[in-house]
Design a protein that fits this description.
By secondary structure, the protein is of the alpha+beta class. The chain is about 55% helix and about 10% strand. It has a single domain, classed as Cytochrome p450, CATH 1.10.630. The longest helix is centred in the N-terminal third of the chain and has 37 residues, at about 5-40. The chain has a four-stranded mixed sheet with strand order 1-2-7-4. The protein contains 21 helices and eleven strands. It has helices spanning about 5-40, 55-65, 80-85, 85-95, 115-120, 135, 145-155, 165-170, 170-190, 200-215, 220-240, 255-280, 290-305, 320-350, 350-365, 375, 380-390, 425, 430-435, 450-455, 475-490, and strands at about 100, 105-110, 195, 400, 405-410, 410-415, 420, 490-495, 505, 510, 515-520.
């Protein structure tokens, strides 16, 4: 009997590796999805049939691209068919509880408000999904952390968004709004009215305010960061409409090379921003009480404890983590408020009675004087309007979670590895919760608060729910109230005949073709 040679051993090992890999791939792209599909159907959950490797991603991408080619036929708050035509087709055909396929992963849509709340408050089983490392680059920092690290970072950052801290940075909100209003007044000049696309001004305003209030800088200083983040968004959006292949980001494709260059440039700009603040602190400059100060203080604690125990080293953030949090808030802080403002201006243009009521409240509270925190907190009509806008036009039209083990949700048994989606948009206009006028703009429904408006149905969550609820909610609401109040003090406005109603989702819900308003001087 011959002794096995080294070559034969290596060949045998290679065959074992190849066969094992083939089995894993076949299980990933076919056996497991088909097993999960059967599991879901046996529970009475309808859905699409699994298609090898791509699932429904090709159909999803094609239908979205087709929908964006034409605007809506007139103005309507029922824009779901345009922003998510695949899901609209399924909801119309089989109901609001169903599953589709993101590649080889089932995405299970849950519409019951009680189950949504149960899932969003259960961080142990329902985790933030890591769909794609390229998309994750847009949302680094604590929003993607889990467990103790998430809790530690959230605890560090939260004080920067408490009402008492936000009062201290209110002048930054005001300065940003004054700059935008001044531009509008110069554009109007001696004219009584003027048509203006307000969307780019609102994105600049939100960028300016987050720069001033969170980082103690200005829009001009942060402009490069915002422009780079916009370009990164375009690249990330392209990857979201296709199946992500593990390891693909390491291949030096043109988009991957550009993404790496963008990351390096943002790193350089944030380093410059942080070093500038370091010099100010060392020079004994007065504290600014902003987000960057909070992050820098945390980093200082981390540095001080570097020589201590492993436990002590978790007291603060390292420099890379500080940069990740800066990038997160530059992106999310700008996008969330700008879309809230733009949809509010659109709806107040359509509903002149509510525009008049909001203006009357602002003038009764402030006259034409400078706004203050106490007055802003007492603008009840304004709050009702903003809640109704958030109900009809939430910044994110759905929330996603991933489960890593077989998980019970109500009477459902969900398979490990699945994505679970919660349709914010549909839940917030479900006629069972909101009545037959759910698609109509009626801020009066919030006259007695959110709980009364929903009938206790847990069907209003534009900023999320549970422990992971958006940390910047108060920031966004104060900025929106400040900007809208200052606009209402100086202008009336209506939609231009040139305005085309075309909501679209680019991470957040925004107008595809801008927002042309006719501004009138008061």
């Amino acid at each position: 009997m011959e002794t096995p040679t080294l070559n034969s051993i290596l060949i045998s090992l290679l065959i074992i590796v190849i066969v094992t890999s083939i089995i894993k791939v076949v299980n990933w792209v076919w056996l497991r999805p088909k097993k999960q599909e059967k599991w879901l159907r046996n529970q009475g959950i309808p859905g699409t049939s699994y298609k090898l490797f791509f699932g429904d991603m090709k159909d999803y991408s094609f239908m979205c691209n087709q929908a964006l080619k034409t605007p809506m036929n007139g103005f309507s708050n029922d824009y779901f068919p345009r922003v998510d035509p695949l899901r609209h087709h399924l909801v119309t055909r089989i109901g609001q509880d169903y599953f589709i396929w993101a590649g080889a992963t089932p995405m299970i849509n849950i519409s019951n408000p009680d189950l949504i709340r149960e899932a969003l408050t259960n961080m142990k089983d329902f985790h933030k999904p890591r769909l794609n490392p390229i998309v994750d680059k847009l949302f680094p920092g604590f929003v993607n952390y889990e467990g103790d690290k998430w809790a530690a970072h959230r605890k560090i950052i939260s004080p920067a968004f408490h009402m008492e801290k936000l009062k201290l940075v209110l002048p930054a909100f005001y300065d940003g709004c004054v700059e935008m209003i001044t531009k509008w007044e110069k554009i109007l000049g001696e004219k009584d009215s003027y048509e203006l696309d307000v969307w780019p001004y609102l994105t600049t305003l939100s960028a300016d305010v987050i720069s001033r209030a969170a980082f103690g800088s200005s829009y001009e200083e942060g402009q490069q960061i915002f422009e780079l983040l916009k370009e990164m968004t375009v690249i990330a959006l392209g990857t979201m409409q296709s199946v992500y292949i593990p390891g693909l980001r390491y291949i030096p494709t043109p988009s991957n090379r550009r993404l790496k260059k963008i990351e390096d440039q943002i790193h350089t700009l944030l380093t410059r921003l942080i070093n500038k603040r370091k010099r100010e602190i060392e020079a004994g400059c007065p504290p600014k009480f902003d987000l960057l100060e909070t992050l820098m203080d945390s980093h200082h604690k981390e540095t001080q404890n570097a020589a201590g125990s492993v436990k002590n080293q978790q007291l603060g953030m390292n420099l890379r983590e500080v940069m990740d949090e800066c990038k997160l808030f530059y992106f999310a802080g700008q996008e969330t408020t700008s879309v809230l403002l733009v949809w509010t201006l659109i709806l107040l243009s359509k509903h002149q009675d509510w525009q008049a009521r909001a203006r009357e409240e602002v003038l009764q509270t402030f006259g034409t004087s400078v706004l203050d925190f106490k007055g802003l907190s007492h603008l009840k009509t304004m709050s009702m309007i903003l809640y109704e806008v958030l109900r009809l036009y939430p910044p994110a039209i759905q929330l996603n979670r991933r489960i890593y083990k077989d998980t019970k949700l109500g009477k459902l048994s969900l398979p490990a590895g699945a994505l679970v989606t919660f349709p914010v948009l549909l839940a917030q206009r479900d006629k069972k919760s909101w009545g037959d006028d759910a698609d109509d703009f009626k801020p009066d429904r919030f006259s007695e608060g959110i709980s009364k408006a929903t009938g206790g149905s847990n069907s209003f969550f534009p900023f999320g729910w549970g422990p992971r609820k958006c940390i910047g909610e108060n920031f966004a609401m104060i900025e929106a109230k400040m900007a809208l109040s200052m606009i209402l003090q100086r202008f009336s406005f209506e939609l231009s005949p040139n305005y085309v109603h075309a909501p679209m989702t680019v991470i957040f819900l925004q107008p595809q073709h801008g927002v042309q308003l006719i501004l009138h001087k008061l």
